[in-house]
C-alpha cells in the first residue's frame, strides 16, 4: 500500500493531505493539521476524547480511517469558534466548572454539540445518553451535564444554534 | 429475589500533607515592567485549580488585582522546589510559600512607591484595584504600573519576593510514639443510600450526602468541584474499578477502557454537600487540603450501605455483582447449614 493524497474540508477550509496507509482521521487532524484539541486518550474507541463531527455526525476520529473522510466536512473543537469568540456551549462549560484537567473537554463539547444540533431541548436522560461515549476522570460528570442543560436553555432563549 | 435498600456512612480525618523530612515548597514572585506579578512554582496543577488558588492568594497578599497575577507552574527543572502535588498538600504548602514570597514582594513594591510619593512605606496601603496611596489620603496615590516603570527604568530595582514553607520533621517519642504528624486535619462524613438487586447483584447509589470541614475555603466553587468529582471516584472504586488480579501476576489487569469499568454520568446520584469552615491556624488564609479525602469517605460508606441492605459483611472492593452474589450464597448456606 502506498501513501495517498486525500482532500477534505476541515473547519471550513479545504485541505489536501498526504496520508500513510491505515492512517486515522485522528492522525491527520492532530499530527498533520496540528488541531490538537482532538485528544488521544486511548486510540481504540474507549474514551471519546477524540470526538469530531464528520458531515455533522459525531465520530471517534481514532476509529475513522482518514481515507473514509475523503471529501467529507470535518469539524473539530477549533472549528466552533472561528472568530475566536467563545460560543454559548463553551461558555456553559466555563460557568459550570465542567473542566478540571480538561483532557475530556474538547470531546465532551463536540458530543454535546452533536446532541444539541439534532435535539435542541434534550432531557437529562438524553444528555446522559448523548455523552455516554465520553469518559471524564475528574469532574464526576454532574457539572458537564449541567453545562449542557444550561447551553440548551440558552439556545432556546436566544433561538441560536449551538455554535 | 428483590431490590433491597440500605444506608451506610463513613467519617474521615484527613491530614494535610506529610511531615517526614519536612515536605517543603518554595515560591518566587517578581514584578514585570508592565506591573503584573509572575508567581513561579514547580508545583503541578492537575486540574484541581491550583493556579487559580495561588493567584488568589498572591493577589490578596500583594494587594493587587487578581487579573495582574500570572502563575507559572510545573517546570521542575527551573522552578523553585516543590515536593509535589499529592496528600492534599499544595493549597496549604504552596499557598503558604506564595504568601511569604508575596509579603516580601509587597514590601519591595511599597518601598519604591514610598520614594515616588515621598512617604514612608509603612504609611502606604494598597486598594486592591492596582493603586497605592498614603493611608487616609486617597489623592496621594500612584498606580502599580507607575511603580513598575519607576523601579525598572528609574531606580534600577527589582520588585520580587522569595517564599519557603517548611514544616520541620517532628521526632517521635520512642516510649509513646507521640509526634506531631501533620500541619492540620480536614474532616468529613458521608452518608449513602443504595439499592441492591439480589438477583443480578447490581448496585445503584441512590443518594450521597456529605459534610466537609476544610478550613477556610480559598475558592468554594473549586472545593465543590473536588467533592463532586471525588464522589464519582469513590463510586468507581467501591463498585467497578479494579486492576485485579494484580501483583504478583504480571499480565493481570484490564488494559483498556472497554475492560476497565468505571461509572458514567448515568451512575452518578445527586451529590449534596455542605461545607463547614474552621480556618486552620497554619493555613494560607486558613486553608486546609481537600483534594484527596473526597474519595476516601464515599468508598466505605457505599460498602457499609450494601452490607446494611443485605445483612452481610463484605470487606473488599470493588463490590462487583459477583462479590454480592457470593456473599448472598454464603449467607444462605449458613442459614441452611
Ligand atoms: S482516543 Fe478515540 S476514543 Fe479514545
Ligand atoms: S476534566 Fe479531566 S478528564 Fe474530564
Description of the molecule:
The complex is a heterodimer of chains A (163) and B (337). Chain A has 163 residues and is an alpha+beta fold. Chain A has two domains: 77 residues, Ubiquitin-like (UB roll); 73 residues, DNA polymerase, domain 1. Chain A contains five helices and five strands, in the order ββαβββαααα. Chain A has a five-stranded mixed beta sheet, with helices on both faces. In chain A, strand 3 and strand 4 form a beta hairpin. The model of chain A has no long low-confidence stretch (mean pLDDT 93). Chain B has a four-stranded mixed beta sheet. In chain B, helix 2 packs across helix 3 and helix 4 packs across helix 6. The complex binds FE2/S2 (inorganic) cluster (FES) (2 copies). One FE2/S2 (inorganic) cluster binds next to loops of chain A.
Largest interface, C-beta closer than 8 angstroms, per-chain residues: A-B, 27 and 23 residues
Cα gyration radius of chain A (Å): 16 Å
The outline of chain A comes out as globular
Spatial strand arrangement across the major sheet of chain B: 1-9-10-11
**Mind describing the biggest β-sheet of chain B?**
4 strands, mixed
CATH homologous superfamily placement of the largest domain in chain A = Beta-grasp domain
User: How many domains comprise the coordinates of chain A?
Assistant: 2
CATH architecture term of the largest domain in chain A: Roll
Return the CATH topology of the largest domain in chain A: Ubiquitin-like (UB roll)
What is the rounded distance between the termini of chain B? 20 Å
Arithmetic mean pLDDT of chain A: 93
Structural class of chain B: alpha+beta
Rg of Cα set of chain B: 26 Å
**What's the shape of chain B?**
elongated
Parts with pLDDT < 50 across at least 5 consecutive residues of chain A: none
Instruction: Using the coordinates above, name the CATH class of the largest domain in chain B.
Output: Alpha Beta
- Element order of chain A: H for helix, E for strand: EEHEEEHHHH
If helices are DSSP runs of H or I spanning 4 or more residues, what is the number of helices of chain B?
A: 7
Amino acid at each position: 500500500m502506498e501513501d495517498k493524497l486525500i482532500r477534505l474540508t476541515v473547519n471550513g477550509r479545504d485541505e489536501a493531505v498526504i496520508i500513510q496507509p491505515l492512517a486515522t482521521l485522528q492522525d491527520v487532524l492532530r499530527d498533520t493539521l496540528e488541531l490538537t484539541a482532538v485528544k488521544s486518550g486511548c486510540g481504540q474507541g474507549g474514551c471519546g476524547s477524540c470526538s469530531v463531527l464528520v458531515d455533522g455526525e459525531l465520530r471517534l476520529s481514532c476509529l475513522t480511517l482518514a481515507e473514509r473522510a475523503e471529501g467529507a466536512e470535518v469539524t473539530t473543537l477549533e472549528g466552533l469558534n472561528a472568530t475566536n469568540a467563545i460560543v454559548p456551549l463553551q461558555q456553559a462549560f466555563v460557568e459550570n466548572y465542567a473542566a478540571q484537567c480538561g483532557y475530556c473537554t474538547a470531546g465532551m463539547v463536540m458530543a454535546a454539540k452533536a446532541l444539541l444540533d439534532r435535539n435542541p431541548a434534550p432531557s437529562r436522560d438524553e444528555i446522559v445518553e448523548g455523552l455516554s461515549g465520553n469518559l471524564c476522570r475528574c469532574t464526576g460528570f454532574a457539572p458537564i451535564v449541567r453545562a449542557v442543560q444550561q447551553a440548551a436553555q440558552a439556545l432556546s432563549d436566544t433561538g441560536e444554534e449551538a455554535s | 429475589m428483590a431490590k433491597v435498600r440500605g444506608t451506610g456512612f463513613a467519617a474521615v480525618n484527613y491530614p494535610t500533607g506529610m511531615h517526614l523530612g519536612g515536605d517543603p515548597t518554595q515560591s518566587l514572585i517578581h514584578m514585570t515592567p508592565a506591573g503584573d506579578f509572575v508567581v513561579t512554582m514547580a508545583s503541578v496543577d492537575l486540574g484541581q485549580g491550583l493556579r487559580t488558588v495561588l493567584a488568589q492568594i498572591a493577589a490578596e497578599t500583594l494587594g493587587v488585582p487578581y487579573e495582574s497575577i500570572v502563575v507559572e507552574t510545573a517546570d521542575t527543572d527551573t522552578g523553585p522546589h516543590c515536593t509535589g502535588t499529592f496528600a492534599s498538600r499544595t493549597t496549604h504548602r504552596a499557598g503558604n510559600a506564595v504568601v511569604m514570597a508575596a509579603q516580601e514582594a509587597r514590601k519591595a513594591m511599597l518601598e519604591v512607591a514610598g520614594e515616588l510619593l515621598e512617604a514612608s512605606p509603612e504609611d502606604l496601603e494598597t486598594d486592591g484595584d492596582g493603586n497605592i496611596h498614603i493611608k487616609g489620603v486617597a489623592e496621594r496615590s500612584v498606580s502599580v504600573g507607575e511603580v513598575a516603570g519607576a523601579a525598572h527604568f528609574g531606580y534600577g530595582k527589582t520588585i520580587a519576593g522569595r517564599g519557603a514553607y517548611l514544616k520541620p520533621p517532628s521526632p517521635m517519642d520512642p516510649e509513646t510514639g507521640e509526634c506531631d504528624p501533620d500541619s492540620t486535619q480536614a474532616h468529613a462524613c458521608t452518608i449513602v443510600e443504595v439499592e441492591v438487586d439480589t438477583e443480578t447483584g447490581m448496585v445503584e447509589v441512590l443518594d450521597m450526602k456529605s459534610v466537609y470541614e476544610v478550613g477556610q475555603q480559598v475558592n468554594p466553587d473549586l472545593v465543590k468541584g473536588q467533592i463532586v468529582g471525588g464522589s464519582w471516584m469513590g463510586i468507581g472504586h467501591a463498585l467497578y474499578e479494579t486492576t485485579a488480579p494484580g501483583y504478583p501476576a504480571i499480565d493481570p489487569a484490564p488494559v483498556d477502557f472497554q475492560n476497565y469499568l468505571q461509572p458514567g454520568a448515568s451512575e452518578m446520584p445527586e451529590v449534596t454537600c455542605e461545607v463547614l469552615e474552621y480556618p486552620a491556624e497554619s493555613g494560607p488564609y486558613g486553608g486546609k487540603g481537600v483534594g484527596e479525602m473526597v474519595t476516601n469517605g464515599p468508598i466505605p460508606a457505599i460498602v457499609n450501605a450494601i452490607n446494611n441492605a443485605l445483612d452481610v459483611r463484605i470487606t473488599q472492593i470493588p463490590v462487583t455483582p459477583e462479590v454480592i452474589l457470593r456473599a448472598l450464597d454464603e449467607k444462605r448456606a449458613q442459614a441452611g447449614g
